[in-house]
Specification:
The complex is a heterodimer of chains A (208) and B (60). Chain A is 74% helix and 0% strand. With 208 residues, chain A is mainly alpha-helical. Chain A folds into two domains: 66 residues; 91 residues, Cytochrome Bc1 Complex, Chain C (Up-down Bundle), CATH 1.20.810.10. The longest helix of chain A is centred in the middle third of the chain and has 30 residues.
């Protein structure tokens, strides 16, 4: 195969494009700008750490099933870890959102990074909601019977039936986690491509 | 597990939650406390010095 033919291959072209956009030293950098040394920049990675615990504990719950998480001490413990890591996930994500909102993190061509964050937030809420209605206890029955009226008022109840446990569980453990994780990966890659947004310049710096 | 019973007694889960109702706004005290902690954490993150920041500035 000639060099020209190799250059024309889609794999070669894609590799060149990806490495030009995101070279390894940018994908996994050694250092970050000095302005990242602030607690407000910690909440993004806290959200990622919580997401890792959510997924790990969710996998354990999926392996052992409802009888285990309702009926055994270790099952209760893992179920609680799953719940509390979700709480930390949203806690950190909302503070991350506040921080990025007030520093207008969409500046410098970062609009797509901001929008993937917004969509990830919405998908995460849906994932948490389907989790609440998939607990298989009185709490999930109460939440789903209350939520059905809201969903039916939108006309979406025929497609997204919150009283259908099988459907809600599949959304919770297959479709929505795939969406949330894919969006998170895209969000992090975009942060790597564009770099962490700098804070606004101080007034004296602007005048100087 | 005695310590756990003591902690659990602080927030009894077998009773109805407390709610604050003001015109159209209805919020549980538990949710309000969490939102308050989030606001405090946000402000603290802006104000508290980050460990090693001065050392890094000196090295630059």
């Amino acid at each position: 195969m000639s060099t020209t033919e190799i250059d024309r291959q889609w794999t070669t072209r894609l590799r060149h494009r990806v490495t030009a956009k995101l070279p390894p030293e940018k994908l996994l950098p050694d250092t970050q700008p000095s302005y990242v040394s602030s607690w407000i920049y910690v909440f993004g990675v806290t959200t990622l750490a919580a997401l890792a615990v959510v997924i790990a504990t969710g996998c354990l719950l999926a392996i052992r099933g409802p009888q285990w998480w309702h009926g055994s001490d270790i099952g209760h413990f893992v179920n609680s870890l799953h719940l509390w890591s979700v709480e930390i996930f949203f806690f950190a994500m909302v503070i991350h959102l506040w921080g990025k909102y007030f520093m207008a993190a969409w500046r410098g061509g970062r609009a797509l990074t901001w929008m993937t964050g917004v969509v990830t937030f919405v998908v995460s809420i849906l994932t948490a909601f389907t989790g609440y209605v998939s607990q298989t206890n009185f709490d999930s029955q109460w939440i789903s019977t209350q939520a059905k009226d809201g969903i039916n008022a939108t006309g979406g109840g025929a497609y997204f039936n919150v009283l259908n446990l099988g459907q809600m569980l599949m959304w919770h453990i297959v479709l929505l986690p795939i969406g949330a994780v894919a969006l998170t990966v895209l969000h992090v890659l975009l942060v790597r491509v564009k770099g962490v947004v700098p804070p606004f310049a101080a007034k004296s710096e602007v005048e100087a | 597990m005695y310590w756990f019973n003591g902690v659990a007694a602080l927030a009894p889960l077998d009773q109805l939650g407390h709610y604050l109702h003001w015109h159209w706004l209805l919020i549980s005290v538990a949710n309000l406390i969490v939102i308050g902690i989030m606001v405090v954490t946000f402000i603290a993150a802006l104000l508290l010095p980050f460990p090693g920041r001065r050392r890094r500035k000196e090295n630059q």
